[in-house]
Amino acid sequence: MPGIVIVGAQWGDEGKGKVTDLLAAGADAIVRFQGGNNAGHTIVRDGELFKFHLIPSGILYPEKACVIGNGVVLDPRILLEEIEGLKRRGIDVGNLRISANAHLIMPYHVLLDTAGEVKLGKLSIGTTRRGIGPCYADKALRLGIRVQDLLDEKILRKKILAALEPKQQALRELSVQRRKLRKEAGEGARQGGDPSVADAPDPRLDLHTMTEEFAGYGHRLEPHIADTSRLCWNLLDGGGTVLFEGAQATLLDLDHGTYPFVTSSNPIAGAACVGAGVGPTDIDEVWGVAKAYATRVGAGPFPTELLDSVGRQMLEAGHEFGTTTGRERRCGWMDLVALRYAVRLNRMSALAVTKLDVLSGIDPLRVAVRYRSREGAVFDSFPYHQSILHSAQPEYEELPGFEADLSACRSEADLPPQARAYLDFVAGFVGVPIRLVGVGPGRDQVVWMGDEPRLRAA
Ligand code: IMP
Fold this sequence. Notes:
single chain; alpha/beta; 10-stranded mixed sheet; 4-stranded mixed sheet; 20 strands; globular
């Protein structure tokens, strides 16, 4: 099983980090292939809590290559903070490799992300404001700055200069619009407001300062910069196992998610090939990770959302607060219409269901099995039309809940029959086996269904 992709099956925060960490034990390399520091994964190892935004979960294995692939957008300041944080905790980061082709999040991307959200007002997407969208936009416009550009100050300056001019103009325009709006609202033109659209030129956007700052990052990152596609090929060709770790999730996919309430990359399995530089036949397995309920951060349709005490219970028992922004996550029932869509889109071969323990004490349990549109039409599959999805009412199957605390369960037999019935229903409905179940945050708090996979590191 040389190539394995791990993807989020819902709206993110499913616990991919923990599943990656477990499967990584038998892998030679762990590769992130998209997204940036909008992601956040938490791993609990021997009682110690690790939070990562950019670095792949595999960093806790010093003998394995830990790769940031070309499809990732990388804020070097954040990456260096993570590296320094790990070093302070005695973790060796010598195995970290960064693709020379990955794009850099520049200060103007962060400013534009915030300014764009402010401008959208009520229609905002609720981005993490980390500059992700503007950075991917520059990549597509061919105005991006890549990791390799950090290694030549002359080229770096030229590229920043070319990219900077349209950004300054865009930020100026947004600032003018904002001032106009504030004036219309009767506020003083310079009063309050968002720093990203302030009137004075932003010192962070000075060409000289930015070039110096980024060249400095280049010196510090240089030992890690590599041809990471080749690294993957060498391992795969030698019979090794490579894990491709997705960030965000299927329903946040730029093409297949709930557009425009999505991220600006493709978190689905197919994108692992592009974002890491391997071929489709290098992929042998696709593991989807889904929570036993559902959560979403930011705006956008969420048919099974619960705004009642059950949703609150999920939020509190599941500690559903964003790793990156600290925002409360919206919570709801597991949506099997959406999950079946994710299973097919990623052609999943296995499913990991996390946080089953959070559901204890909720009776009955519900899972959405179809939607009904405002006009009464029934949708057994995920509707492609945004307006239908926005007003879709889920119809539920009711299943008996369980009272027991699952946190000490370690085998299928330890799970209460209602919990097993719940998992069986989910697996049967979406047509993919559940191989792993999470029953608590700890690394050992899992139940392998059937045999634990025997991966072989080369
Ligand atoms: P962006 O990726 O910061 O542009 O945000 C776009 C949308 O994706 C927003 O709704 C974010 O809340 C959501 N998002 C981005 N990253 C994550 C994540 O790691 N988990 C959950 N939602 C995310």
